[in-house]
């Protein structure tokens, strides 16, 4: 007598499980095995023809280790455009996702910047095409569009929820790929990282972070810059001939700044430049245990300033400004987290130098916001050291910190990724 089956045969399982000949728990929208192996679950049987099942997906039963199976399944989730139709979500959410995709396309078709046609085609056509079957890139696209809508329509509760949901999901999924980036997915990881990096730089414009009139140092922003920058650097080596090539050719200086290593520690100057002299002298006389970290960070900012006033090309200036977060020691970020006035004043000098490079669109409004914010929470004894940073934002120095200041710069110059 044949042995009785230990379980009921799955007749409505997803295509991935059927191709692998494993039991599917038939959970929608994502079954347990696909969730476990972190691949895109798909219940569209039409997408899994016998040819595909036997020649590609079925072959994954040969790897012997769990990591090999996971890597193989991940590669199989990156189906070509003609294999699987877009699966943006469940029916109840599909219209929202289509709205966000439409807005993403609209942003790049009618953006305010002068566009390189090749770069425009890359963002409008090539990136969405590759996002079909690549969840972390699709999430990054939807996240970018949702944040843009949220910034421009802060009263829309739907976009408020979606912008945070998609950003968190995109970042979480991308971080999972960090140890698996290779030729099979580096171009998509790089595209998603660029989009998330832009969102990180623009996150200060998120209305949800400005519910009150009390300034908070940009700790999360600095930490995210460092984290996403590591993904960009990991993926950068394999994308020179990928669909992202137009972006590399159009903006190599900016991108190399984003993926570049942390700048080397500059030598402490014998004499600080006049704008930096007052605060530099204070730090040299500071005898606390934090003096080394504070002075090291301040020397970085001073080095940026000297290079800029001495005629450093704008392209090189961009690179150095963008790699500044990578140079920060964890101890300095901890001081910012505690709202240490010395750390906040030191960082204000960096934002003062940033004001000198307003040709980078995602810097617009940021120096005014941060410098005014720091000044607003300092006591009188510390405010004297903010003279030069406030001089750099003279037109906004007298706007009280809070919603009025935030609204002055929130929607100003938010173009596309070009």
From TrEMBL:
InterPro entries: Fun_TF, Sterol_Uptake_Regulator, Zn2-C6_fun-type_DNA-bd_sf, Zn2Cys6_DnaBD. It comes from the Eukaryota. Keywords: Nucleus. Pfam families: Fungal_trans_2, Zn_clus. Residues 13-43 form the Zn(2)-C6 fungal-type domain. The keyword Nucleus applies. SUPFAM superfamilies: Zn2/Cys6 DNA-binding domain. One of its GO terms (molecular function) is zinc ion binding. PANTHER family: STEROL UPTAKE CONTROL PROTEIN 2. This is Zn(2)-C6 fungal-type domain-containing protein.
């Amino acid at each position: 007598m044949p042995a009785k089956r230990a379980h009921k045969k799955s007749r409505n399982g997803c295509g991935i499980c059927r191709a692998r000949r494993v039991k599917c728990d038939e959970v929608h929208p994502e079954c347990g095995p696909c969730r476990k192996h972190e691949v895109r679950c798909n219940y569209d049987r039409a997408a899994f023809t016998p040819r595909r099942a036997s020649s590609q997906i079925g072959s994954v039963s040969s790897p012997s280790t769990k990591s090999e199976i996971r890597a193989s399944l991940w590669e199989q989730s990156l189906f070509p455009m003609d294999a699987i139709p877009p699966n943006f979500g469940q029916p109840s959410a599909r219209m929202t996702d289509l709205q966000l995709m439409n807005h993403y396309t609209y942003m790049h078709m009618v953006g305010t910047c002068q566009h390189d046609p090749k770069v425009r085609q890359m963002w409008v056509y090539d990136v969405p095409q590759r996002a079909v079957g690549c969840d972390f890139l699709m999430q990054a696209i939807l996240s970018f569009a949702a944040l843009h809508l949220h910034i421009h329509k802060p009263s829309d509760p739907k976009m408020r929820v979606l912008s945070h949901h998609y950003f968190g999901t995109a970042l979480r999924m991308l971080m999972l790929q960090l140890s698996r980036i290779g030729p099979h997915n580096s171009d998509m990881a790089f595209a998603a990282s660029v989009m998330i990096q832009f969102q990180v730089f623009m996150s200060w414009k998120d209305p949800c972070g400005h519910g009150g009139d009390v300034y908070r140092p940009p700790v999360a922003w600095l930490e995210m810059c460092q984290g996403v920058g590591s993904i960009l650097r990991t993926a950068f080596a394999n994308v020179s001939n990928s669909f992202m090539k137009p972006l590399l050719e159009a903006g190599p200086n900016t991108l190399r700044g984003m993926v570049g290593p942390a700048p080397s520690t500059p030598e402490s100057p014998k004499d600080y430049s006049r704008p930096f002299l007052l605060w530099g002298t204070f730090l040299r006389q500071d005898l606390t245990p934090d003096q080394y970290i504070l002075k090291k960070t301040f020397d970085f900012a001073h080095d940026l300033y000297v290079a800029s006033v001495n005629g450093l090309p704008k392209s090189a200036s961009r690179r150095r400004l963008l790699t500044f977060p990578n140079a920060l020691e964890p101890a300095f970020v901890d001081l910012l987290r505690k709202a240490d006035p010395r750390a906040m004043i030191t960082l204000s000098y960096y934002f003062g130098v940033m004001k000198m490079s307003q040709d980078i669109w995602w810097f617009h409004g940021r120096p005014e916001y941060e410098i005014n914010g720091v000044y607003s929470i300092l006591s009188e004894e510390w405010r004297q050291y903010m003279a030069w940073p406030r001089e750099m934002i003279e037109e906004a120095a007298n706007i009280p910190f809070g919603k009025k200041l935030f609204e002055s710069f929130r929607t100003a110059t938010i173009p596309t990724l070009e």
